[in-house]
Structures are given as structure tokens and as C-alpha cells.
Amino acid sequence: MLDSFVWEKNSKYNNSNADETLDYVLRNTRVSLYCNIDDNVSDNFQYNGKLGPTRQLWIRSSGHWVTCDNLMNFDCLLFRIEGSRLSVSDLNSFLRHWRAGGSARLEWLHLKFEEHTFQERFDEDLEVVETNEERVFRRSFDGWKRVFYGGYRIQRADGTKAMIQCEPGRLLMGVWHGRAIQSLQ
């Protein structure tokens, strides 16, 4: 198992085998700390396997291929996707999966959308509550923190809570596993 894996885009080289290469990397690379992927894959690229467990997965460009099933099947503490094409329906499906106990290790989800058309519309059964709470999210593995000033709160049946912030072009979700989010006092 590797500690980390970074695949960086080379602007001087057009990788005509990027789809096959990324598929191979995702299926065969076992990484404990972080996997950063930054290369262009085709609009037709799809991946239907599992990934992880790993601490961090960061898809720095061309994240258009990441589906709701990928979100549900990738075992990461921190998941960051740039260039996402996930829909509101996809996100509601993922949140339903999370509320049922799926993606149990997830601490941080950061989606930067390819288009700035994302609108927060949560299905009623998710029991998402808009709030003006101020909470500090702190990652378990390195202490990094972010303050959530309002947003949305969601809770699983096991009591695990999360805060969601929707900003133009992106969605952030911090999960509180008992100590990752603290109220500001």
C-alpha cells in the first residue's frame, strides 16, 4: 500500500490513454493517506468500482465522471471533487444513503460544480433543517478547521450530524462524529 498517489496533468503532453490509465489507477492503487488526481479524461469516462479506504481523495479537474454511485462506493474521510456534474437529485440520493448509515467514515465533502447552476433543494424525507448556527468543523486527522456560518443541518438515525453549506458553484458538508463540529460560544 502506498502512503500517497498524485497524478498531475502535464500541459505539454496530451494523454490519449487518460481514460484507461485512470481506470487502472482507481482499480489497482491502494493509498492510505491521499490520492490526488489531476488529468483530463473524456466526457464518456465512467468508473463503476470501489475505492478506499483512504484518508483523502481529491479530483482536481475533470470530476465530471464522478457519479452518485461513486460517492457511495468510495471510502474516504475527505472527498473533494472539482468539475462535478452531480445533480440535485444525485445529492439527495447520496444524503439518503448517508442518513441510512452509508459512507460512515466520511468527514468532509467538497463539491465544486462545473456549472454554477446548483440550487439547494433537499427532499422532505431527508429532514434537512435550515439553520443560522455557527459551528466549527475540525478534521480528525490533521486538526484543520472551517467555520460554518449557517447553512443546513442533517442527522442520521445513529445521531451523527452534519452541516451543509451551499455557495454559488459549490457544496460543502462537514460531518460531526462526536467531536468534529463544535458550536461557537
TrEMBL record:
Q: Which domain of life is it from?
A: Eukaryota
Q: Where is the Sdz-33 F-box domain?
A: 56-111
State a single Pfam family of this protein.
FBA_2
Question: What name does the UniProt record give this protein?
Answer: Sdz-33 F-box domain-containing protein
